[in-house]
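Students often ask why we bother predicting the structure of a whole assembly rather than each chain alone. The short answer is interfaces. A chain on its own may look different once its partners are present, and contacts between molecules only exist in the joint model. In this exercise we take two input lines together and write out one structure for the complete complex. Read the inputs first and try to guess which parts will touch.
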Amino acid sequence: MLERFAAGDVLAASRAMSTIERGGEGAESLLDALYSKTGRAWRIAFTGPGGAGKSTLVDGMIARERGRGQTVGVIAEDPSSPFSGGAILGDRVRMARAQGDAGVFVRSLASRGSAHGLSSLAGELADVMDAFGRDVVILESMGVGQAEARVRYMADCTVVVLTPESGDDVQTMKSGLLEVADVIVVNKSDRPGADALAADLKSVASLRGAGLGGWEVCIVQTSATGGRGIDELGEALDAHRAHMDSGGRREARRREALRERTRVMVEERAREELWRDPTLRQQFDAILEAVVNGRTSPHRAARDLIESRRRG
Amino acid sequence: MLERFAAGDVLAASRAMSTIERGGEGAESLLDALYSKTGRAWRIAFTGPGGAGKSTLVDGMIARERGRGQTVGVIAEDPSSPFSGGAILGDRVRMARAQGDAGVFVRSLASRGSAHGLSSLAGELADVMDAFGRDVVILESMGVGQAEARVRYMADCTVVVLTPESGDDVQTMKSGLLEVADVIVVNKSDRPGADALAADLKSVASLRGAGLGGWEVCIVQTSATGGRGIDELGEALDAHRAHMDSGGRREARRREALRERTRVMVEERAREELWRDPTLRQQFDAILEAVVNGRTSPHRAARDLIESRRRG
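Now the answer. The structure tokens for the assembled complex follow.
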């Protein structure tokens, strides 16, 4: 399979991604084998609430990249959960994008499972796209507040998509937004409140000035369905890429991303190891009885358990 | 403080909750002290996408409980993140609910931080409300797909609020929904698609039949702003409570909830302990260099690290 993968066989790449999604040892050895081939693709993450118009903007960026001969991979989180608040798109809809152009490779990702598992998995699928030789990899995810910190580590460039409906008080959201975004898109700019939202964001961004890496968050207004602002968005992405390509910024950001990914994996393995210990499982069952009977609290139970384990 | 708390001093309860929010040892010893006083309140969780109308429904349920002399505590997740996709409500708006009625105690909770941290914290604040003597504690949270599994463990009753806009394909969401919900509300029932959504959910629920605990998910249509369906919702909640109060079901569910809470705390402590180890931190820094240089993958690095720790 790796041979056919290296030869650019899309079916082999598709199978590789299915192997990653299944997880376990198969996924691990595949990722080990592919890892040295990663690092070439430029990764852009689009995030924001459901219904903000991310897919249409991503379509615009795909067309732009294809227009200059770049191959594109897309990892699209499929908002199959009713909790996402957005429209429900099936694989069929998303796959329609790729039809008739071998230079666009779309992979849907079900949004079930833990937020942490999801961002790890999306990053690993992006690795496959990268190793497969895609020039640009776009990660399209349903943004949720809790995932903000993780979003920072998913890509070389993070685009946050908002609409005038996203909230009438920029003050309450500015810190989280500016920490995470390289580019903020105010989409649906034909709706009331769009100009005011964009102006607010611009003044907040300029007050804050350049953040980590010396980049000042760029605000772009678009009306994706009408195609307005798509070129400006493309130019903002290019400007950010040029910025990152100088002064070792790209490498520094990737280093932080790898640190975060490795840290998460270490914790995951340590967690699995913890529950593999039969003594701990036995002690847990015993102390749970005490919790249920009100003799100790969950906090105290956990503390006692871990302390007794440390003492051995 | 504990004395004034026990005497029903709202300020003391408020301070207790601030202590919990700050976390650390102060929070732990307070929770330890209060834990034996918990277990009396009936806990109801309302969850669903932003803009579904949860707050208005909760207001209706507060009025209902107050009408029969029950005191109420509300833990309301404040959707301060732009990613939530919903309207942004400030503390002022929410606090208005409680004005002029000492029998209603509202606490807002910022939705920053990890999903896991948030549900733990909400549960702990509910413990404080419970220990403080509130008869009914309502947890109002922004639902996100990832938090579904955790939602199950937050309350004695879980209400999922949807609207006709929540999605046109019940099939894609039914499994997650039915696993988590005791009552599903189709709110904004005056909008197109509401009857069809409710009918679909009803047929799916009846096909599935009674789930764990012998309860068949109940579907209620409401139009919260017009007050329609509020009584039916109240009756559904009462029926579920009567069901849970028989056959030891309430105790069984609480046992599972305590198991989950304790498990999460054990893992949290184990994680802290892990990084407290200077040898591990040193090894991590060294192996991260190998990852950055492409000599090993994040997966392999994590595996090697944990294996060397086990042997060491």
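Check your guess against this: The two ends of chain B are 46 Å apart (CA to CA).
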